[in-house]
Specification:
Number of strands: 0
Helix content: 55-70%
Strand content: under 5%
Structural class: mainly alpha
Length: 380
């Protein structure tokens, strides 16, 4: 029997190069969310919410579903499901903690502005007033996700999606068609019911209903799993034309403000309206049509395949810390705009600086990550 000697070199598998397209689109969503979360400045008019029914929140959740289909679905197999479930729920806990942290920092930013600038009226912004008037109840409600501040509601919805994820992956291993149908039924029931987590401090409910948004998340997971199993998206010219026509109609509708046109015909609002909370059909179809065109039109697809060292790739690769960073920056930006009496040029200058800081922070995270790797691989 032949035996290896100690002198023989070991063959190390070289990981495939990272596909940067998801990172790039995720970065564009993060930057757009930051811009849109500082209302009253000029960059806001350049984001794609002004050109269609959906905005960066829908794109972000769909991309997150694609990323989950890439990262977690292949590992959710017999013998590994418990370990993967623990990893997923640990991520959900991380998202919850991040949500609470950004909410507390937001409160501190606005309270500090009220004290420093002598503007107590700022505490009536972004749903802070109930926390001020009923602090004890407000703190408990915030920790239990029963009270959300404005512009601080994406991470809580995302955390609930991750709590649901093991069940989604388990059913998807049984039947992809079944999980899509069940997810669609939940979306429909949540919109008609409505079925939505309540707010404790008022008569309202969550701004982004996770029982509605899970449908888009599931579609993203299913699409990625389908492709990884050797499938492909249909590329029939009629389907491409239909998607392009819908995106074009959406653009015209928004640009010319045709919101008074009533096409409901007595149907539920979730099927005919434009409600973001319940992810109404026009918004859902818009983000899916956009994603489909980007996926099947080669020039659009190739344009996102940037170098691994591109700033957008760095931003998208560190999506959670960058999102937290952008949220805190946006809250500071809202204070700046408020205390300057909605001065658009000042707000625009702040957002421009914030976009640059996003790149700087992503580079910093890259450097920290690289330093950590070098310490691990350094000879002892």
């Amino acid at each position: 029997m032949l035996q290896k000697t100690a002198a023989e070199p070991r063959v190390t598998a070289i990981p495939p190069p990272r596909d940067t397209r998801l990172d790039v689109f995720r970065a564009l969503c993060l930057l757009s969310i930051f811009i849109n979360h500082v209302p009253g400045q000029y960059f806001e008019y350049l984001t794609h919410k002004n050109a269609g029914f959906s905005d960066s929140a829908e794109a972000f959740v769909l991309i997150s579903g694609l990323a989950v289909g890439l990262a977690y679905a292949p590992k959710f197999t017999a013998g590994h499901r418990l370990a993967v479930t623990v990893r997923i729920w640990r991520r959900a806990l991380t998202l919850y903690v991040a949500h609470i942290m950004t909410s507390i920092v937001t409160l501190a930013i606005f309270a500090g502005a009220a004290l420093y600038f002598g503007r107590p009226d700022i505490l009536s912004e972004i749903n802070i007033r109930p926390m001020v008037d009923h602090t004890e109840q407000g703190v408990v409600a915030m920790v239990l996700l029963g009270h959300q501040l404005g512009y601080n509601n994406i991470l809580s919805m995302y955390a609930v999606l991750f709590l649901m994820l093991p069940g989604i992956l388990f059913l998807m291993n049984r039947s992809m068609a079944l999980v899509i149908v069940l997810s669609g039924l939940l979306w429909l029931v949540a919109g008609i019911g409505p079925v939505v987590p309540p707010n404790f401090m008022d008569e309202g409910y969550w701004f982004l209903n996770p029982f509605s948004w899970q449908f888009l998340f599931v579609i993203g997971i299913a699409a990625m799993v389908h492709v990884r199993r050797g499938g492909a998206l249909p590329r029939h010219p009629a389907l491409i034309a239909l998607a392009a026509a819908y995106v074009g109609l959406s653009f015209v509708w928004v640009v010319f403000s045709w919101w008074d046109i009533d096409l409901s015909y007595g149907l539920p609002a979730v099927l005919t309206g434009f409600d973001k909370t319940f992810l109404s059909t026009p918004r859902l179809l818009h983000v899916l049509a956009l994603a489909y065109l980007i996926a099947v039109v080669a020039p659009l697809n190739r344009a996102a395949a940037l170098r691994i060292d591109h700033p957008l790739v760095a931003i998208g690769r560190h999506s959670l810390p960058v999102f937290i960073f952008g949220t805190i920056l946006a809250m500071i930006g809202q204070v700046v705009v408020f205390v300057t009496d909605r001065n658009a040029p000042i707000g625009t200058a702040f957002v421009a600086a914030g976009l640059i800081l996003h790149v700087v922070y992503a580079r910093y995270l890259d450097a920290i990550q690289s330093l950590g790797r070098s310490r691990v691989t350094a000879p002892g």
